[in-house]
Amino acid sequence: MSAVSQIGLKKNLVRKDYFLACKCIPISEMVIEPPRDADLLTRAVVYKKEFLTKDICRILLEPATQVYYHAGQFINLHSPDGVVRSYSLSSVPHEDYFLELHIKCVANGKMTKWIFDELKDNDEIDFHGPSGNSHYVSGRPKQNLLLLSTGTGLSPVIGIARDALLSGHEGDIYLYCGNRNASGIYLEDVIQKTKEQYPNFHCISCISEGIIPIGAVAGYVTDIAFTRHSSLKDWQVYLSGSPNMVDKGEEVALKQGAASCDIHSDSFYSVDKSYSVTDADSISQDTAYPAADPELWAALDNGVLMKAILTDFYTRVYDDSLLSPYFTGVTKNRLIEKAYSFSNRIITGNKVYFGDRPRNAHHWMVISDELFDYREKLMETVLREHGLSEEMIGRWRAIDEVFRGDIVKEQPYPKMLDGIPLPLDGYEKITIDASTLCDGCTGEINRGETVRYHIRLGLTYCSGCIENNITV
């Protein structure tokens, strides 16, 4: 098999010929077998389970074998009936003997019901991992750190803060803990002890509803943190908790000067992040366009530099084994034209784009956060090579982050036309209620015309292309 298919795997898995199927390019005949649980899972004993609040419990685990990890990474717990859930590590490896998890009870949650009602001290449990890139990055001890959390998102970020302090970090560390009301506050003793021991550690509790306890502040954690720290150039930013907070935090941090490589995030999902093809309400709303940015447009030489950037970027995309399959059948020039018009619409505010918005344009594409990040790193490389300043790169990236929620998903969902979900595969003839452009000849299609629509790819063809049986 190709060596690239084993990059990133643990040494013991490489020795046993494990590989990543998504990266494997066979160089000879292969005989493939399913993975063995014993190779992938680690057994641990529950040393202690205790309740921190009425709906948050702390689990201390003693692994059967040594585990190498960073505070802030996560492990995947396996219940006896096969349910798997990810939980972040609050423990610091060079300070704490046990692996420490903080777990919030989720209504109707299969895993948390088992943990809260059945799991007890001295039980055995399997997990795999650790995984994740959200952890303290050493090497710049004087750099300031900004950490934001909601709910049990406090678990990994307090671990990251402790790891930094125990490693001798000299820069200021600001931790903002967000909760809907005061009942969500926990770990007060740990936080107070850390504040007393390290004068460069600062923690602010943010409460968005109800009575505000002494020492806390009223408001949403993102509003408070980013108002107090409006310039984040050369800062490390850590975000952990609800997806909405993490998404907004990434967007604002980029706008306020943080480099994307210095932003680390960990989203907590209380339910399966998936879409039902019958749930029209959840997929019919397009994300609003962000405000125009005249300074970014000027930095892009009023579009001249942007055209060069997009041409360079999509040339690389079409040569990339991970990204190119999403554009099979679409010409590179056509894609560049669409991307230019869409970016022009966003940055200038001028209504020059008439195609699908990101939610509809990507409706059939199953794209993970990791692949989205991979794509963004490639874009950053191109932006730097074309001389765009770090501030303007941050603004460009912030625009992309606005639409992450429309693009990242675990399964396809139907394209929406006039609020009506369309089937997921095959061709249909429909009458459109909004003007668009033909994906065959690029001509304009007016409202009320009959078109041929490819259900999965979302491609639309005008009457002329239908007559000539033209498809891309």
TrEMBL record:
Domain FAD-binding FR-type: 39-137
GO molecular function annotations of the record: heme binding; metal ion binding; oxidoreductase activity; oxygen binding
InterPro entries named in the record: Cbr1-like_FAD-bd_dom, FAD-bd_FR_type, Flavoprot_Pyr_Nucl_cyt_Rdtase, FNR_nucleotide-bd, Globin-like_sf, Globin/Proto, Hemoglobin_trunc, MRET
Keywords: Heme, Iron, Metal-binding, Transport
Cofactor: heme b
The protein's name in its UniProt record: FAD-binding FR-type domain-containing protein
Organism of origin: hydrothermal vent metagenome
Species classification: unclassified sequences, metagenomes, ecological metagenomes
